[in-house]
Amino acid sequence: MTDRPRRTVRAPRPRSLPAERPGPTGGKRDLNRRKRLAQFASAALELMQRHGVEAVTIEQICEGAGLAKGSFYRYFSGKPALVEALFERLAEQVDAAMARAETALAAADNTDALVMAYADLAMALAPVVVEEQAVVRLYLQERRGPRTEARAVIRDFGDRLLARGEALTLAARAHGLLRDLPPAVTTRAVIGAIEAVAWSHLEGDLPGDPGALGEALISLVLEGVLHAPGVPAP
Amino acid sequence: MTDRPRRTVRAPRPRSLPAERPGPTGGKRDLNRRKRLAQFASAALELMQRHGVEAVTIEQICEGAGLAKGSFYRYFSGKPALVEALFERLAEQVDAAMARAETALAAADNTDALVMAYADLAMALAPVVVEEQAVVRLYLQERRGPRTEARAVIRDFGDRLLARGEALTLAARAHGLLRDLPPAVTTRAVIGAIEAVAWSHLEGDLPGDPGALGEALISLVLEGVLHAPGVPAP
DNA sequence: ACTTGTTGCGACCACTCGGTCACCTTACAT
DNA sequence: ATGTAAGGTGACCGAGTGGTCGCAACAAGT
Fold it and tell me: CA–C1' span, A131 to C2, in Å?
């Protein structure tokens, strides 16, 4: 209640993020904005891989990015929004690739077309996974964590992946490509195997060429661990 | 600086946990101790499944157990010690079963003995996994989380499991049971498939009889997803 | 040049958490 | 019965934490 000099009595400040960012694309504002976003994103990605999505604090991220806490809230409403931004590209690309594979698989009228659709999917996914390695690693790390606000994006991504995968399995089975086993089990087993190998590789526990790893994995998934029946052990 | 009544000047309190617990086994002390431990353990297990090992606070656990924070530190030096206690039984049993399987596999001199060793392992593991379901679920949930102090026990357990699994794979391959693929990849793919199916089942996403699930999984792992070569699609 | 809204900042607030401590009660040994 | 050490408690402390605010610097349209 002291009459210390109050600030100018302008309009009430809209403390939320501006809905639309100003300035010409490529202008000083726009450039700066991209740079800040990248700073926050890369700091967050590094810290979250080391300490986990939930354990990392906003303050740590700001320190890592070399920016103030107030600035963080200019760009993100909180950690969940930040995580969403981190997964944006990966989620987009993977969703699109899976959707394409699904329609291709549904339209396939012979085994060759079927196998082709799978091959196309793999070729579409590979570069994205390589480019977004760190995000993929974060996904694998957090996939099974409890559904907190910040992790919801990650779990949703995983759930969509699973659902799309199951649709693929169903289509392939409808065409008689796969053995007659519960699609839910088949899908989860295959994805689980892929993710486990990918995880070990990204952790550094499984050195070697990713291509060779992939080939071994595919062979394993398609034909199993045993020698084909009728082929005696050497 | 005030001369408020100071406490009696007895011997300095040994603030650590007493090395050896007193009282006759089955006495009031002993019984009470077991009860408190169980209270803390069950509260922690429930909370950790819902919020994650790291996110759960000591205060929450105490509230869940209906005991004071001070009491918690009478029994555990901190969260890591609590997690260690939670995993004690499971780790013991699994380690023992894996070790037995390893010696049995090394001693096997024909395929039947080999398969028998695997079957024994499965039969030994099944009841433990059922009894310690909640702990198994916690393991699957936290397995890939960053190696914090509290999670170190869990990651160590997983690493031991993987190492034992790889030894089994090597033994089986040495006997010519398995195809000639990198053992590290095979092991990780198999364990990954098993864990993914188990996880979905424990999450409630994969309803059905665990026995049937297991059979489908085994068939999948052994023979792959494809129809056997030479068997044309129907 | 001038106005206007965005951006960067860091002090600040209310709150939470891990861990400790002095004190009281309880079980056991003698 | 009595002494002793273990067990139970909750107030308390210090170190953060998420989130906000007033302000100054600044870019962009006019």
Answer: 47
Query: Would you give the DSSP letter of residue B206?
Result: S
Q: Which CATH architecture has domain B79-223?
A: Orthogonal Bundle (1.10)
- Coil, helix or strand for A179? coil
Q: How far apart are CA B91 and CA B76, in angstroms?
A: 19
**pLDDT(B197) > 60:** yes
* pLDDT-based confidence at residue A20 (cuts at 50, 70, 90): low
**C1' (D17) to CA (A58) span, angstroms:** 8
Whether residue B51 and residue A148 make contact (CB cut-off 8 A), yes or no, is yes
Phi-psi region of A230 (alpha: psi -120 to 50; beta: other; left: phi over 0): left
Give the distance from residue B141's alpha carbon to the nearest chain A alpha carbon, in angstroms.
5
Specify the amino acid at residue A149: E
Distance from C-alpha of B207 to C-alpha of A165, rounded to nearest angstrom: 18
Q: Is A181 on the interface with B (CB under 8 A)?
A: yes
Apex CA B212: angle with CA B209 and CA B214, to 5°?
Answer: 110
Chain C: nucleotides under 7 Å from a protein CB?
Answer: 5-12, 16-23, 26-29
Write down the architecture of domain B28-75 according to CATH: Orthogonal Bundle (1.10)
Count CB-CB contacts under 10 A for residue B135: 24
Residue A26: C-alpha distances to residues A30, A33, A34 (Å) = 6, 10, 10
Question: What is the signed CA dihedral for B142, B143, B144, B148, rounded to 10 degrees?
Answer: 70
| B99: nearest Cα among B88, B107, B87 | B107
Q: Is B176 an interface residue toward A (CB < 8 Å)? A: yes
d(CA A101, CA A105): 6
User: Cα(A103)–Cα(B43) distance, rounded to whole angstroms?
Assistant: 48
pLDDT of residue B165: 97
Rounded to an integer, what distance in angstroms lies between the CA atom of residue A234 and that of residue A69?
65
B127, B132, B117, B121: which is closest to B98 by C-alpha? B121
- The answer, yes or no, to whether ipTM is higher than 0.95 is no
Q: What are the residue boundaries of the structural domains of chain A, listed by start?
A: 28-75, 87-223
Residues B181, A219: C-beta atoms closer than 8 Å: yes
DSSP-assigned beta bridge partners for residue B178: A226
Give the residue, A131 or A22, on which the prediction is more confident.
A131
- pLDDT for A5 beyond 70: no
Eight-class DSSP state of A170? H
- Which pair of tokens denotes residue B46? 């429930």
Which residue's entry shows tokens 């906003």? A58
Closest-approach nucleotide to residue B4, Cα vs C1': C22
| pLDDT at position B109 | 81
The predicted structure's pLDDT at residue B229? 61
